[in-house]
């Protein structure tokens, strides 16, 4: 008996990989489901592409399901009837027949699964098998995508479709994870649970990366290769103690969000204790941070930082700054001159 497992995606496939995934899903499913916004306001703001795809798919429509928000009964009934997570909230759902022609429309309408979101397109493209159950599911606003296949099938698909990056048990091995991440040119990666003491320099090979999250309590120093990721937009680091933010941070010209949380543990080792914040090595923000012209959010929590560099005033796009549980006694005066700031939290405590 084939043991099917829902394999989650690190990120959704794009371009040619998206088209191959649509072909795969069409061949393994009976129908696909889209959530359609039906109220008068939605009709006014949804895009021309939204309307065109609904009109083009009309010949393949096999069912409409309207689920009301005054109770969970109807939603649970629909989920049970089709054994599908497509019906996860109230709304109107259209079900379409899977065939080569309808698949061709899906491929022309979007570049990636993340495109299936209101008001650009009907929401959350999901594929349902003949006897029920999802073959492919997506909740785009949560950036959640999954494919129900066996482990062996997942391995074969990863090898065959460049850009289809599924989470595997074998990715517990960091080298295998990086090999696949580089091969599939992922734009999003989460690294945790590898007991790292340092990040490998080959991280620089992840040239398409836009979103990187690292949760490794023993990582103390950031490698220079990290700052060669020129497309990076979001960088989040959680560790017990960080030596510094290198001046090379200035190279990340597209960075929009930087978050650092010291005093963090990724595993419940017996006897582990958080260092007093005064003993945390991270005690300054380099003035080079002022060169991050695209930066919108800056969060550094639990550190020995005692002042902010005046160069931060150059960050004209910065909307939110949270330097919590630090060693600063007062907010610097230049923050008041940064009129674009919408949220400012700088204090010795967390709140």
From TrEMBL:
InterPro entries: LRR_dom_sf (IPR032675), LRR_domain-containing (IPR050216). GO terms for cellular component: cytoplasm. Keywords: Leucine-rich repeat, Repeat. It comes from the Bacteria. The keyword Membrane does not apply. SUPFAM superfamilies: L domain-like. Gene3D superfamilies: Ribonuclease Inhibitor. This is Leucine-rich repeat domain-containing protein. It comes from Paenibacillus nanensis.
């Amino acid at each position: 008996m084939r043991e099917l497992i829902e394999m989650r995606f690190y990120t959704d496939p794009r371009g040619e990989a998206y088209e191959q995934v649509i072909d795969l899903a069409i061949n393994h499913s009976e129908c696909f489901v889209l959530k359609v916004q039906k109220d008068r306001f939605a009709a006014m703001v949804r895009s021309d592409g939204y309307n065109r795809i609904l009109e083009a798919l009309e010949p393949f429509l096999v069912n409409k399901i309207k689920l009301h928000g005054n109770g969970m009964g109807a939603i649970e009934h629909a989920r049970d009837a089709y054994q599908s997570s497509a019906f996860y909230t109230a709304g109107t759902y259209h079900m379409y027949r899977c065939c080569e022609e309808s698949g061709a429309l899906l491929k022309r309408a979007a570049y990636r699964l993340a495109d299936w979101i209101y008001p650009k397109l009907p929401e959350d493209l999901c594929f349902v098998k003949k006897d029920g159950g999802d073959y492919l599911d997506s909740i785009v606003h949560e950036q959640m995508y999954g494919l129900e296949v066996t482990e062996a099938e997942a391995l074969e698909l990863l090898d065959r479709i460049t850009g289809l990056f599924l989470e595997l048990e074998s990715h517990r091995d960091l080298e295998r994870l990086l090999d696949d991440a580089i091969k599939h040119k992922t734009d999003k990666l989460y690294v945790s649970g590898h007991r790292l003491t340092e990040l490998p320099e080959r991280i620089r090979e992840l040239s398409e990366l836009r979103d990187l999250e690292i949760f490794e309590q023993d990582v103390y120093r950031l490698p220079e290769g990290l700052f060669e990721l020129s497309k990076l937009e979001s960088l989040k680091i959680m560790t017990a103690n960080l030596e510094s933010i290198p001046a090379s941070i200035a190279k990340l010209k597209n960075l929009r969000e930087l978050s650092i949380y010291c005093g963090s543990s990724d595993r419940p080792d017996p006897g582990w204790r958080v260092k007093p914040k005064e003993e945390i090595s991270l005690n300054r923000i380099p003035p080079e941070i002022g060169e991050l012209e695209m930066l919108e959010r800056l969060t550094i929590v639990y550190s020995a930082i005692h002042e902010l560099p005046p160069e931060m005033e150059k960050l004209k796009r910065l909307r939110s700054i949270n330097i919590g549980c630090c060693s600063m006694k007062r907010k610097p005066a230049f923050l008041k001159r940064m009129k674009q700031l919408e949220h400012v939290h700088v204090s010795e405590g967390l709140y």
